[in-house]
Specification:
Layout (H helix, E strand, L loop, with lengths): L1 E5 L18 E2 L20 E3 L2 E16 L2 E8 L8 E4 L3 E8 L8 E3 L20 E2 L2 E3 L5 E6 L6 H6 L4 E6 L3 H5 L8 E8 L1 E2 L5 E2 L14 E3 L2 E2 L5 E5 L3 E8 L6 E5 L5 E6 L2 E9 L1 E4 L4 E7 L4 E7 L8 E11 L24 E9 L5 E3 L12 E5 L3 E8 L5 E5 L5 E5 L14 E4 L4 E7 L10 E5 L2 H5 L3 E7 L2
Parallel strand pairs: 2-4, 4-7, 6-12, 13-19, 18-26, 27-30, 29-36
Antiparallel strand pairs: 1-26, 3-4, 4-5, 7-9, 7-10, 8-11, 11-12, 13-16, 14-15, 16-17, 19-24, 20-23, 20-25, 21-22, 21-24, 25-26, 27-28, 30-34, 31-33, 31-35, 32-34, 35-36
The chain binds CU-O-CU linkage and copper (II) ion.
The site of CU-O-CU linkage (C2O) has 10 residues, from β8 and β35.
Amino acid sequence: GMAGAAGLAAVGAAGATFSLLTGGDSGKAAAAEATGTLTIPDLLEGTASGGTTTYTLTAKSGTNEVISGVTSTTAGYNGSYLGPTMKWTKGDTVLMDFTNTLGAETTVHFHGAHIPPAMDGGPQNAFADGVTWSPTFEVLDEAKTLWYHPHALGTTAEQVVHGLAGMIIVADDSDASAALPSEYGVDDIPIILQCLAVDTAGDIKYEATGYRASGVGFPVLVNGTNVDSTTLGFTATRKRTRFRVLNASPADIMTVQRGDGGTLTQIATDQGYLTEPTEVTTIRLVAGARAEFVLDLEDAVTLQAVVTTGWIRGGSGTYDFLTVTPDATDSPADLPSTLNTITRYDTSAFTARTITLGQGTGGTMTINGSVGTTMAGMAMISTTLDAEEVWTIKNGTQLEHSFHLHDVPYQVVEINGETPTGVDLGWRDTFEVVGGGSIKIAMKFTDFTDDTYMYMLHCHLLQHEDEGMMAALMVTDG
Ligand code: C2O
Ligand code: CU
């Protein structure tokens, strides 16, 4: 439930619209019923055959009570809102049959995955209503939390806020993975946070301009359930419980903390394990980011989600979203003192580039001066296989942005002129760039080249992406 509100900020102008088909499923799985219990998205079982695991997903429309008593048109994968969790294992070959029944074109992007550009689900992979898209690739990623969502030009915000998003857990055989909780829904718990805007007719919006005055609700959802006036419950049957948190909001920064001010033991950032379990009091997640933490439970712990920026809901706010109550008698072993080895890049010989985030005319957004609302109009970054690069991401606006790069994990090597510390030393694929600020990130382009299909780099404030704050990255053989 809601615990406080303050502040106000703005996030650009209105973007593109399209209509989802009405009709279809209603209220299945992650529907926003205030049952008081945490809804856990289904785990999608794959079918293994001939060395390939196949997952079958259908993007469809439906309805959901995003705000209690108001029926909203929504969309989901295999259900009316959000999608099931997929669990991939490093080294496996996976194949996905994605069928589009939305009545509009879509794509499915595997956010954070290191996969070939033709399988990445960017705008060039758009497929029409009635079509099945079947990407296949080997899972090269280490253990981490990824997610999947649409990425077609101009419609990403619209499709994601209607519910098209799901989590991907990558498992591996590392010592850290063996030592950490991993039983899905039992001691390994997905938390998908969203802060939306919904008008009085139930239409879900991804920007609040023009709606704040007219009785619009700004629900905060946890796995699809509105927590504005409810604190959900989860009974932990293991003392040590792992949480994977995804900020799937269209814009707002969400911060997770304990209601009692205690610490969370953070174990992972976007792109996998930290070097060691790290005690933190807050986990600040920019749009698109993920983090993992564990709780060693003696007594009940209430988790709070803080809408830090208040772009969508017109003010920040603190929500008690989940009370975790232990009902366990086990005694977990100590956490491993080392989870991962992260060798920090020495960037002195890296190729340097500057990526400037800007605003154009007529409500457009830019990267390096180009409005990326079409593939042809985008700035194009061209690099070669195994190139090592260091990019300065310069925020030429006073708005805040979430910088996301496809294909390879990056290390943040500078934040507004300062050297990063603590959890900012973990591997990332999304990072906050404050208004007028800058970050430096370093990465190495490994394994995949393509002269036709491109990776994307963009702001993960979805409206900004749709308004053109997106560029293309081509990795060639050189
Ligand atoms: Cu989560 Cu290019 O996207
Ligand atoms: Cu932005």
